[in-house]
Amino acid sequence: MQITVYEVGPRDGLQNEGAVISTEHKIELIEKLAQSGVRHIEATSLVHPKWIPQLSDATQVLAGISRLDGVHYSVLTPNLTGLQRITANQVDEIAIFMSASEAHNFKNINKTREDTYGVLAEVAEEAQKMGLRVRGYISTVFGCPYEGEVSLTESMRVVEKLLAMGVYQLSIGDTIGVATPRQVHEVFATFDKEWGATWFAGHFHDTRGTGLANVVAALQHGISTFDSSIGGLGGCPYAPGAAGNISTEDVVYLLHGMGYDTGIDLDKLVEAGQFIQKILGRELPSKVLKTATG
């Protein structure tokens, strides 16, 4: 069975880094990931530079990538102003995002959920006119740093709204890494029954060490796309205490060991992890990367 590994490190991973990474190094990282066989890469974000200074070079990164055939490049896009910074030939799809919890949504986007829907609908409609696919992220489905538990009913309301905008897939996020397999079973069993598993991807953080266990739980409900970040980079600027995303190297090792096909060369993927680890000048959380570097 084929599983899609959706690489979010160049955006979701690097956005939480304090030291500025050069545009050239970002481009090199993206190209190394593509050369390893990763076929879905979120390259950067079009959020206003004052909010995420690390990604203020988004247009330069997109212009500098040597695109490989068969690789889909995506960019996080918060509003029409962001969308207007790119041309259709620079990316294959955009991602829109909001939270299942009201408090995190306001911290992250500075809007209520109700006010967010109209903005995202405009972005989705315009992107589709440009011939771009639209992916959606829903954060804090499994728990919120400000509200605590998030009801499944609230998450389902957000899912319904975003699916109506024409997204081809929704990435269901454990933003602060509180989920356990039991909760993952509950969420994806409900979503599968209501809409079908093919609409959804899993986006897990490894804050409490349950990330890979949650991948296995989601697989049991037909989820076949998982977001991950090279080296385990990441976190969330608006989720205090959130650790990095699950490591792409660890996810690929797990999936291959379970007999799934990802199309990714793990050795080349490790080389990409070693590259960004060297650039950052510190050891990254990836377990596979640690074994490879001794």
Automatic annotation (TrEMBL):
It holds the Pfam family HMGL-like. The keyword Cytoplasm does not apply. One of its GO terms (molecular function) is hydroxymethylglutaryl-CoA lyase activity. Keywords: Lyase, Metal-binding. One of its GO terms (biological process) is L-leucine catabolic process. The keyword Lyase applies. Residues 3-270 form the Pyruvate carboxyltransferase domain. Transmembrane segments: none annotated. Belongs to the HMG-CoA lyase family. PANTHER family: HYDROXYMETHYLGLUTARYL-COA LYASE. This is Hydroxymethylglutaryl-CoA lyase. It comes from Brevibacillus laterosporus (Bacillus laterosporus).
